[in-house]
Amino acid sequence: MLNELLFKFASWLDTFQSSTDLHESLYMYAWVESTHVLTLMLFLGMLLVIDLRLLGVAFTDVAASKIVERLDKPMMIGFVVMVISGMLLFYAIPVRSTQSIWFRIKVVLLIGAGINAFLIRNMTRSTDMAWDNDPKPPKRIRVGAGLSLALWTGVIAVGRSMAYDWWDCHKEMPYFMYWAAGCVNEMAAYE
Ligand code: HEM
User: Fold this and answer.
1) Would you tell me which of 54, 84, 106, 148 could form a disulfide with 158, CB atoms 3.0–4.6 Å apart?
2) Residues 50, 65 contacting (CB under 8 angstroms)
3) Where in the chain are the domains?
């Protein structure tokens, strides 16, 4: 059911001339993808510094709130550019992206990382910041920061894996993999 819905949506996006134009463009697709990759430095570079402080392993002589306050804006600018460039990459190749097991895992990890970031943000903005100057923040903060680093590392790893066709629909795969990747035509042919 969900696979069919996603396939229908992606096939609909694929009918737009601008989607094909972007994918077949001489430079634009490469520029969008380069922006997606290069903005990693801004977004995840800032996030790494914040998480290392919240883990209590770096910049421990600086108040945690000071680091968050200074790096939050450039990090969020980077995040917005990542999302916009990512959506353009998706729009350029909607069917293959939707039927990519890597992209599906990436979306799940992105949602998890988003929820975790929201929770950390609340914890570092709460009134109870007595630990602000402590070199080692409380356990809940360190767990959140560790989870953040793990989830974003996962997003990068599966994002990079999208370029490889190991489990694309045209490959011979077990039924479960056709289902997980959303290969609706191959699933119908399998039965
Ligand atoms: C905000 C956090 C995000 C991070 C850290 C991230 C990271 C990455 C990375 C590292 C790659 C591999 C680039 C390469 O080496 O070729 C990638 C590719 C890709 N990303 Fe993202 N991404 C993010 C958000 C998104 C979003 C929101 C979307 C779409 C809705 C998206 C769609 C894509 C697509 C379609 C590719 C494949 C491009 C290709 O192989 O041609 N990304 N991403």
Assistant:
1) 106
2) no
3) 2-190
